[in-house]
Amino acid sequence: MGAGMLSKRIIPCLDVREGKTTKGIKFQNNVDIGDPVEMARFYYEAGADEIVFYDITASYEKRDIMIDVVRRVAETIFIPFSVGGGIRTVEDMRTVLLAGAEKISVNSAAVKSPEIISEGAKAFGSQCVVLGMDVKQVEKSEKIPSGYEIVINGGRTYMGIDALKWAIEGQERGAGEICLNSIDADGTREGYELNLTALISQNVDIPVIASGGAGKPDHLRDVLTKGSADAALIASMTHYGTYTVSEIKTYLDDQGVKVRMTW
Amino acid sequence: MIAIIDYDAGNLTSVARAVSNIGFECVVTNNVSDIAGAERIIFPGVGAAGSAMASLKRLGLDTVIKDALDAGKPILGICLGTQIIMGHSEENNGTPCLGIIKGHTRAFPSEMKSEEDGSALKIPHMGWNRVRIKADHPVLSGMGETDEFYFVHGYYPDPDDSAYLIGETDHGISFASVIGFKNIIATQFHPEKSGRPGLGLLKNFCEWEPAC
Fold it and tell me: What is this structure's pTM?
């Protein structure tokens, strides 16, 4: 294993609703498991390489709570973190970045108006803009040649957009990274969608974070090798204490996957 | 007091938060007299060389680094700050820069392949990587060879003289990830986002008394 290469990143994802963390199983039955600032500190000390916050607050009026969370997280941890969910405008992006996040992730807002990617990249730099993609497998067709379609609303609405084509467009518009979530795998704990991840990762030049389906450390090994992902999102496998970040990293290190082992 | 130079090049509050967290007072400022009165200077930045140089000139800050260097004050460059202390950057079709360190800021070659498995290496170089120490330096004291630092960049500093080289990192090529001389040290990575080793480096800088 060469000393000189990028480490694969392990990224805990915290779903936050009105200032409290939750973990959605297939986006339903969210269970409250704690304070996001405390959980961010916990993961920072446990060796997470980055943290993703996903704000699923339903009402627009309560978004200020999230900004306060971002501000407190930024004072507490000294690794990169990103915030997604409910980002609809360049002004929303600015507010979150000024509160201290490194990156903002846009998902359904980008599907509805792709200019938000280019405008965000122009205003803050590509390194700040993550394109979040929710994807479901469908039958291959003229419209969806890759057999993977972009969905929104937690997978309830099919957008008629091919996932591979959208990933390439996102990169061309200036996204600095893609967070690729398989709705089919999400919450199953049976492994990431390797074919989808490899397809996207091998056809874009920007880093790809794989999301959805992590249940065991070998799932991460597979998506970071066969799936060609640059980073892997984890949630329930560490949130409930089944595994620690350190255990996952030790396993990956043993398996020859380059990860950051000192922190 | 530590002055963090604000020249409209990205959000600099993360550097200020990290410095405050390790117990040092700092101010994010574009005020020339505040900067002149500071004991040490941090020159961070995220963005592109062209607009950064334009902002520095517009704000009358293009000479403050040279002045601090001549005054013997400890100076820390970070990321874009490090790139524009070079003589010239390839970014934005070529941008003349501050020229504190002779050399160029260069773009990574396109289509680099991993030596490990032949896969395409991604640009920007984004994520955690190691630094090989090429010259002992007080600001790097305590750094272990397995410690990693957070990078986000598509360009890298390439000093003309290897005497400026303090640390190097591999991403397809080996590049200078820490450079400096006399009372200036500059990192291509973000110590403020590099966890414990990054905060350790910042603390070393805040306590550094260069022998000039």
Answer: 0.94
Q: Looking at the domain assignment, is residue B212 inside a domain? A: no
Alpha-carbon distance B34 to nearest alpha carbon in chain A (angstroms): 23
B192 is an active site residue: yes
- B206 tagged catalytic: no
Does residue B91 lie in a domain region?
yes
Residues 128-147 of A with CB under 8 A from B: none
Q: Scan for tokens 């900067």, then name that residue.
A: B35
Q: Which domain holds residue B80?
A: 2-207
CB B85 within 8 A of CB B183: no
Which of these is catalytic: A49, A134, A186, A222? Answer: A134
Work out the minimum CA distance from A27 to partner chain B, whole angstroms: 29
Asked if B32 contacts B60 with a C-beta cutoff of 8 angstroms, the reply is yes
Compute CA A226 distance to the chain's CA centroid, rounded to the nearest angstrom.
19
Asked if the C-beta of B198 comes within 8 angstroms of chain A's C-beta atoms, the answer is yes
Tell me, yes or no, whether B124 lies in a domain. yes
Q: Does A94 touch chain B (CB under 8 A)?
A: no
Name all domains of chain A by residue range, CATH numbers in brackets: 9-132+162-254 (3.20.20.70)
Chosen from B78, B122, B123, B151 to mutate, greatest number of chain A CBs within 10 A = B122
Is B71 within the bounds of a domain?
A: yes
What's the CATH code of the domain at B180?
Answer: 3.40.50.880
Look up residue B70 and give its amino acid: D
Number of domains in chain B: 1
* Contact assignment for A207 to B126 by CB distance below 8 Å: yes
Task: Please list the pLDDT of chain B residue by residue as tens digits (212 residues).
Answer: 999 999 987 778 899 999 999 999 999 999 999 999 999 999 998 888 999 999 999 999 999 999 999 999 999 999 999 999 999 999 999 999 999 999 999 999 988 888 777 778 888 899 999 999 999 999 999 999 899 999 999 999 999 999 999 999 999 999 999 999 999 999 999 999 999 999 999 999 999 999 86
